[in-house]
Design goal:
The protein has 2 domains: 104 residues, no CATH class; 190 residues, Ribonuclease H-like superfamily/Ribonuclease H (Nucleotidyltransferase, domain 5), CATH 3.30.420. The chain is 48% helix and 12% strand. It has a 5-stranded mixed sheet with strand order 3-2-1-4-5, with helices on both faces. Helix 1 packs across helix 12. It is an alpha/beta fold and 311 residues long.
Length: 311
């Protein structure tokens, strides 16, 4: 049983985690605003002073965490500059938006030499549409817009290691190859995925990374044979024979396939802690918003692990 599971089963630990979560949000809201990193270093002598990328990132965290608008961020910025008598001119909300668009918000998981089991899945986030109630009430026939978020989650810690953000037209299997490439620095032991990834190229990519693919074959799956009719030695053929003999439930139980639900948990946290809808309009800003959400979730997950380790 992992530390995360112990935390969820122990009420005292769960209460301590939510307390630590409140402390985390407090630290986000009240950082050391008067730090020397508030004002960016001037690249050339004589250039006017400007707001640093660090503080722009802080403002964007406020927007994502508390659903602020850019005009509200402009008001916060003006108050900070006035309160601390900073020698810099505040920028407008449109400038803040342009600065946010240029931020580098890559996911940087902690490096480890331990063997990892990865759960991969995807979910959708709304980007337009008037909501389910209005659609049903007024029988409006239109298709809501979505973007797809593909996640690779460490099943022991719940940390999101890799993310790919695409339009709704991209398939799940097409993004697994990109995620496996990004996971090569890690020592991957197993990869859990659902039936949408039951493709030869997905299994080959996982095997090339030195991991075992735990992907359920389709119900009508057939054994792959060679030119002379002999069975090909592959994980998929082994899985099919196992399921034919003992059933899909036994296959999932014996191989621990239910660990894949950790990716579903990560997607639930992504939607419930924030929202199922994105506030940004352009695809570039939608990607920035999703990346900031995932960074915050990983930081909260680190708080949970720290609480469990200290008990």
């Amino acid at each position: 049983m992992t530390n995360v599971e112990k935390t969820l089963q122990n009420y005292a630990l769960t209460n301590r985690f939510y307390t630590a979560q409140g402390e985390f949000i407090f630290n986000v809201w009240f950082p050391p605003l008067a730090s020397k990193n508030f004002i960016a270093k001037r690249p050339k002598r004589g250039r006017p002073k400007t707001i640093s990328d660090e503080f722009i990132r802080y403002l964007f965290r406020l927007k994502v965490l508390f659903s602020f608008g850019y005009r509200q961020l402009e008001g916060i910025l003006k108050c900070v500059v006035s309160e601390y008598n900073l020698d810099v001119n505040p920028i407008s909300y449109s400038q803040i938006c342009r600065r946010v668009k240029k931020l580098k918000l890559n996911i940087k998981p902690k490096k480890t030499d331990d063997e990892l089991s990865i759960a991969i899945d995807s979910t959708g986030l709304k980007i337009k549409g008037q909501g389910e109630w209005r659609r049903i009430k007024h029988t409006e026939k239109y298709r809501s817009g979505w973007i797809k978020v593909h996640l690779a989650v460490n099943d022991k810690t719940g940390e999101i290691l890799v993310v790919e953000i695409t339009t709704e037209q991209k398939t799940d299997a097409s993004q697994l190859l990109k995620m496996i490439k990004k996971l090569k620095p890690f020592n991957i032991k197993q990869v859990y995925a659902d039936g949408a990834y039951d493709q030869t190229k997905c299994r080959e990519a996982i095997c090339d990374a030195g991991a075992v693919p735990l992907i359920p074959p389709r119900k009508n799956a057939r054994l792959k044979k060679g030119k002379n009719g002999e069975l090909v030695d592959s994980y998929r053929n082994d899985d099919i024979l196992y399921i034919w003999e003992l059933g899909a439930a036994a296959w999932k139980q014996d191989l621990g396939y239910h660990r894949r639900n950790l990716s579903e948990t990560a997607m639930m946290r992504l939607k419930h802690f924030f929202s199922e809808r994105l506030s940004s309009i352009s695809f570039k800003m939608q990607k920035q918003e999703v990346l900031m959400r995932i960074q915050i979730l990983n930081e909260l997950n680190a708080v949970k692990l720290e609480v469990a380790a200290n008990q």
